[in-house]
Amino acid sequence: MNGVPLALYGLALVAYVWHFARRDPTIGRAATTLLAAAALTHTFVIGMQTMEVGHVPIAGATSAISTFVWLLALSYLYTEMTTDERAMGVFILPLLVALQAIPAFRPSVEAASPMLRGPLFGVHVSSLLFAYASFALACVIGITYVLLFKEIKAKHLGFFYARLPSLQVLDRMNQRAIVIGWIFLTIGITSGAVWATTYAGADPRVQAMSVHDPKIFVALVCWAVYSFELFAARRIGWGGRRAAYLSALGFAIVLLNFVPISYFLTKSHNF
To answer: What's the pLDDT tens digit per position in 247-257?
Structure first.
């Protein structure tokens, strides 16, 4: 079933590339329509998998990747529709296609233990994945901001200047993505703490959880970085390019926690 969303994401990528090259409003609307269709189809696939196994498909790595792609698509659609700017699609869609290819060619939905089927666990993991998707979007926007800034600073107004939105629009898109990500990261951490307290006596791994676990500690560091960017950075003059660099730093921390720590360094939070 994951092959259908992959095909639609691929078609949307072609449309976004075409729109980026031609800046044709009709092609741009078609690209948005295709991406919305892909996200809607992906929603149906995830819903069917949820009904099949009885829980949100986030227990296995492959299922989590599929859910991450879905949430990143929704995050980008929200940002695009609230800013009416489609130029970033050409940078986001390759990531969606590449990641969605994994569940499409290696489908797998792992059954979770009864302890992981509760609503609190679903809220915890889903919120974190949504936060990570938003931070991925903010990172891509931030990198694009830096590329455009350097082109303008060098007074060489070429490829990016002709196709990308203004620095002000990119900065606003970056800020909105960070706000969404921070809200869901806070929800994810809070619900995880409540879930761990609820099931502390049900499993030794839950009882052993503490801030000393690298996965939990790095998640808190990530929250601190984005909290600083959201509430303090701009007040001390760290807007624009510095905010873009902070977005990249924050997502690097997300990737550190999402892949190597999850597989190799976690002590108690290993499920």
So the answer is: 989 988 887 87
Structure pTM?
0.79
Residue whose pair of structure tokens reads 């931070």 in the numeric block: 135
State the distance between the two ends of the chain, measured CA to CA, in whole angstroms.
25
DSSP letters, 89-104, are: HHHHHHHHHHHHHHHH
Residue-wise burial string across 143-163, b where 16 or more C-beta atoms lie within 10 A, e elsewhere: bbbbbbbebeeeeeeeebeee
pLDDT tens for residues 178-227? 998 999 999 999 998 888 887 766 666 666 677 777 888 888 999 999 99
The total of other beta-carbon atoms located within 10 Å of residue 4's CB is 15
Tell the residue number behind the tokens 């590329």, with chain if given.
147
Cβ–Cβ < 8 Å for 100, 11: no
Residue appearing with tokens 């980026």: 20
Residue in the block written with tokens 């489908």: 107
In angstroms, the CA 95 to CA 124 distance is: 24
Tokens standing for 120? 């609190």
Q: Evaluate whether 55 touches 112 at the Cβ level (below 8 Å).
A: yes
